[in-house]
Amino acid sequence: MTSQAPLHRDEDPDFEWTLPGLHLKFDHRDDRPVRLVHLATAPEAPSAAAPWAIVDVATAGVEHAGNDQGLLYSSAGQRLRYEGHESNETELRIRQRAPEFGIEVLSVFRVAGPGLQIRNAVRNVGDRSLILLSVSSALVAVPADGAHDLLWGQSEWGAEGRWRQRPLSELLPDIDPAMHGGQHPRGIFSLTSHGSWSTGSFLPTGVLAAETVPSIAWQVETSAGWHWEVAQTGSAVTVGVFGATDSHHQFAARLAPGEEFTSVPAGLCVAASGRDAAFAALTDYRRAIREVRPVDARLPLVYNDYMNTLMGEPSTEKLLPLIASAAEAGAEYFCIDAGWYATPGSAWWVSTGEWLEAPGRFTGGLSSVVDAIRAAGMRPGLWLEPEAVGVESAIAKRLPEEAFFRRFGERVIVAGNFQLDLRHPAARAHLDETVDRLVDEFGLEFFKLDYNRNIGAGTEVDATAPGAGLLGHTRAFRDWLLGLQARHPGVLFENCGSGALRMDYNILSAAHLQSTSDQQDFRKYAPIAAAAPASILPEQAGNWAYPAASMTLEETAFAMTAGVMGRLYLSGFLNELSAEQSDLVREAVALHKDWRHRIAGSHPVWPLGLPGWGDEVIALQLDTGSESLLALWSRGEAAEVALPGLRGRDLKQAYPVALPEWTIRTDGETPVVELPAGPAARIFTVRR
Questions:
Q1: Which residues contact 647 (CB under 8 A, 6 or more apart)?
Q2: Which of 106, 196, 280, 450 can bridge 455 by disulfide, Cβ–Cβ 3.0-4.6 Å?
Q3: How far apart, in whole angstroms, are the C-alpha atoms of residue 397 and residue 391?
Q4: Cα torsion 127, 133, 138, 139: sign
Q5: 399-439: per-residue pLDDT in tens?
Q6: Strand spans (E) along 60-201
Q7: Cβ 656 vs Cβ 581: under 8 Å
Q8: Is 484 helix (H, G, I), strand (E, B) or coil?
Q9: Cα distance between residue 156 and residue 162, in whole Å
Q10: Which of 74, 110, 79 is nearest to 94 (CA)?
Q11: What is the pLDDT of residue 60?
Q12: Which residue, among 395, 384, 372, has the nearest Cα to 435 in the 3D structure?
């Protein structure tokens, strides 16, 4: 990423960069690094930022200047000094050097919608090798004025997207530094990924929200290790956003003289008001960094045979009635999920990797099922777990050792699987051949790409440390995905990570769709679906809707509501539903199709706050400006819910029309909705 062309050197200690919706101001001195001192939506607007350095770098053998638990105050980072900068209408580049440590850093701020995508490239300008232990992707500070709440997200298989909001003063207590010789507090609030599931425990997104001063939001864009921390630093609170680090992910990168390492990207947004405004800015930023193809813009409705349905045991006899009922419901794509490559009754997870049709599984062959999908007016798709190779697969013996993740001289094995390393040409060639063959043989137009195992810290093959190997692989995986999409411009690719355990914008900037969970209880899916737009775009949020014959009509509508409020990802034994249930499914599908392109321009709003896992009433609004969709889920006793954020708006029930309308009255101009005991859900249109 580093350009060796000389940058403009400005002797003025301050410089600014102003764009529509963004204003940044920096300063630099001979005795300190470049600092961001002003971050706002316009030159005259209040700044979100307190002065702080724009990058931090840690290298082996160099003292850490701070005596604390965080990654700030590295000596190398503190010794960086301004060398020059240049900018245009889309990008600002700032170069700094610390000659005594042999490093040069080029910080690149790229405009993306209302936000900034930031990278830092560290170059060895010394005469000997150096070991890089961490480099920040973004640093920003806000005044420690008590105005901010911190929002962060926890995640878990089947319980994704559980957001928390707390005052910063609770998380970073005032220890009275003056009583301790002026020392900064040593505590931090931090989130760190674990292993190769980038969102297996926490979400790589955070918000500092305030109502009286500007808010900021950030995200880390990597499928490998990441870490972000919030620390009290004197009169400021500093947010440090990092990819993989030595102390958290066993990361290190050896740089020979002249070599460089570029940090993972970080997104940073500023908003003039509070929580929902910050997430709105982050939503527009995410849209700006996506690589969208014409086929992606269709936003088709996909039926998948897995969830609460075939669960990895497809056959011709099971699929044909599902194909007919999915087409009748309005599905446009039909994806055959796991098991199509496995001999019936076998342990299919230990034999994955060749991706060949299993003999004897499909009467008439898989091609006859694909033909039935097309005859029903839908486009066919298949499930793959491309990085996984079962220990009993022929591919495990056919590919070279270096094509797999390895630690301590042995292959890494998790749950009967090895993992391919997409940096190796043999691994990539195998997967290229697989996808090309399946597209050619079956005319596939959709792939669900899954990732069901946390492989750990990474691989030591061609890497200074395993965390660097994992990062290299995940970057190669994204490149591979982009290559597939270039060769197959009419094929859609879904990202899935055992539900949403690898849900990040390293992949989602390229992939079409994201499964938001593997949660099989429709009642528990409501908080997942309602919180999903805090983490991903609503038009990428593949919320499963799996109606079942055992459900009441109210439960059927409840299950379908989650799908409508994102990307409706249909499943279930639709062929077994009653006529009344089928009508509810078709009605939800019709509403979603009517709104899907408006949803793709909407901003999420949470009229009752981000949902708690056990909340009895949950609300999500997808706001397009003059008109919105509002979903309300009831999971407890009957209740009355006031919606002051919708004061003066007109609410009209849009789904389901066949079930009783919920009573809406006004208290002044504030809508008040009477909810029955749950499970029950309704969708309303909201107009100004």
A1: 668, 669, 670, 671
A2: 196
A3: 9
A4: negative
A5: 999 999 999 999 999 999 999 999 999 999 999 999 999 99
A6: 81-87, 91-98, 103-112, 115-124, 130-143, 149-154, 162-167, 188-192
A7: no
A8: helix
A9: 9
A10: 110
A11: 93
A12: 384
Query: What number is the average pLDDT over the span 301-306?
Result: 98
8-state DSSP, 306? I
Question: The tokens 């355990």 sit on which residue?
Answer: 501
Residues in the chain, total? 688
**CB–CB of 684/653 below 8 Å?**
yes
Provide the pairing of β-strand 202-209 with 260-262.
unpaired
Give the pairing of strands 32-40 and 130-143: unpaired
Residue 11 token pair: 């002797």
CA distances from 371 to 51, 247, 313, 359, 377 (A): 63, 53, 19, 18, 10
pLDDT of residue 174: 76
φ and ψ of 91, to 5 deg: -150, 140
Edge-to-edge strands of the sheet including 639-642? 639-642, 670-675, 664-667
Which of 506, 476, 60 lies closest to 251 in space, CA to CA?
60
Q: What is the pLDDT of residues 11-55, one digit of tens each?
A: 678 999 999 999 999 999 999 999 999 999 999 999 999 999 999
Distance CA 541, CA 592 (A): 13
Tokens of 636: 């407890």
- Which residue in 362, 377, 293, 274 sits closest to 328, CA to CA? 377
* Chain centre distance of CA 91: 24
Of 624, 506, 610, nearest to 267 (Cα)?
506
Residue 438, pLDDT score: 98
Contacts of 614 (CB under 8 A, 6+ apart): none
pLDDT digit string (tens) for 107-128? Answer: 999 999 999 999 999 999 999 9
Provide the 8-state DSSP code for 578. Answer: -
Residue-range domains of the chain with CATH: 15-289 (2.70.98.60), 292-297+306-515 (3.20.20.70), 605-687 (2.60.40.1180)
Which secondary structure element, helix H or strand E, spans residue 319, and what is its range? Answer: helix 316-329
- Provide the b/e sequence for 139-149 (b: ≥16 CB within 10 Å): bbbbbbeebbb
d(CA 531, CA 606): 9
d(CA 87, CA 204): 28
Whether residue 659 is predicted with pLDDT greater than 60 in this model: the reply is: yes
Q: Give the position of tokens 């994201």.
A: 514
Count of CB atoms situated within 10 Å of the CB of 127: 7
Q: What residue spans of 47-110 are helical by DSSP H?
A: 75-78
Give CA–CA dist 523/554, Å, rounded. Answer: 12
Give, in order, the Cα–Cα distances in Å from 217 to each of 139, 153, 266, 277.
12, 13, 10, 10
Number of other residues whose CB lies within 10 A of the CB of residue 487: 12
